[in-house]
């Protein structure tokens, strides 16, 4: 019996079946001498749906290249916020956490050992605070983006700008904005580099 979630393209006689258990797509064709260069708009359960690029045989266009993976070090003396940021980043395909630190001095050492692309620094940490650690982080990884993570408000924001940080995220903000903000900081460098290369 044909599954309800089969996707059909009546014009070309192609049926794409979705295996709910494994999330796999199976493709069958009938009375075809060849596949079209691009698939027609597919429908699911009789209702219009967006086109599916189910198989390279159905679409000759080259897939978009995957974005580069940003290597991140996260420094925060509080386990909860530190692990939350790490979890959020590890759920994204374009980020990977390569190091964790509980204070500023440890952050400098971890950055020197891992050479990350992005460093998230809490401001208020024992041994060495984030502002004090900033120069050591810059020296250890000159090309890394540095974003402060703080609950101190406007005063911290002004000092972060004065130091030359690439961004600041407030702890009392929405969790949903953390990854987009970090991604925006990383993309700003990519856009600037591309503009310099073409200019």
Globally, the shape reads globular
Cα-atom Rg, whole angstroms?
Answer: 24 Å
Following the backbone from N to C, one meets helices and strands in this order, namely EEEEEEHEHEHEHEH
Domain count: 2
What portion of the residues fall into strands of 2 or more residues? Answer: 15-25%
- List the total number of helices: 5
What is the CATH architecture assignment of the largest domain? 3-Layer(aba) Sandwich
- Name the CATH superfamily classification of the largest domain: Response regulator
Provide the helix percentage: 25-40%
> How are the strands of the biggest sheet laid out side by side?
3-2-1-4-5
According to CATH, the fold-level topology of the largest domain is: Rossmann fold
How confident is the prediction overall: mean pLDDT? 75
Largest sheet: 5 strands, antiparallel
Low-confidence stretches: 1-60, 190-199
Number of strands: 10
Q: Report the structural category.
A: alpha/beta
Topology readout:
Layout: E1 7-9, E2 14-19, E3 24-29, E4 43-44, E5 47-48, E6 70-75, H1 79-90, E7 95-101, H2 104-114, E8 118-122, H3 130-140, E9 145-150, H4 154-163, E10 167-170, H5 178-198
Parallel strand pairs: 6-7, 6-8, 8-9, 9-10
Antiparallel strand pairs: 1-2, 1-4, 2-3, 4-5
Task: For the structure shown, list the relevant keywords.
single chain, 199 residues, alpha/beta, Rossmann fold, 2 domains, 5 helices, globular
């Amino acid at each position: 019996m044909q599954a309800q979630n089969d996707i059909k393209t009546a014009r070309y006689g192609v049926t794409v079946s979705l295996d709910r258990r494994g999330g796999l797509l199976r493709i069958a064709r009938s009375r075809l001498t060849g596949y079209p260069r691009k698939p027609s708009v597919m429908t699911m359960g009789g209702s219009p749906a967006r086109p599916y690029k189910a198989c390279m045989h159905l679409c000759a266009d080259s897939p978009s290249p995957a974005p580069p993976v940003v290597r991140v070090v996260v420094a925060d003396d509080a386990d909860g916020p530190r692990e939350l940021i790490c979890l959020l980043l590890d759920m994204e395909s374009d980020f990977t956490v390569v190091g964790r630190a509980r204070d500023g001095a440890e952050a400098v050492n971890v950055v020197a050992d891992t050479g990350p692309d992005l460093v998230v620094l809490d401001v208020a940490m024992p041994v060495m605070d984030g502002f004090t650690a900033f120069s050591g982080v810059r020296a250890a990884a000159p090309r890394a983006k540095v974003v402060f993570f703080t609950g101190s408000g406007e005063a911290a924001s002004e000092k972060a700008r004065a130091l030359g940080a690439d961004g600041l995220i407030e702890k009392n903000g929405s969790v949903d904005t953390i990854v987009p903000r970090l991604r925006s900081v990383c993309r700003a460098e990519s856009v600037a580099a591309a503009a310099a290369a073409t200019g």
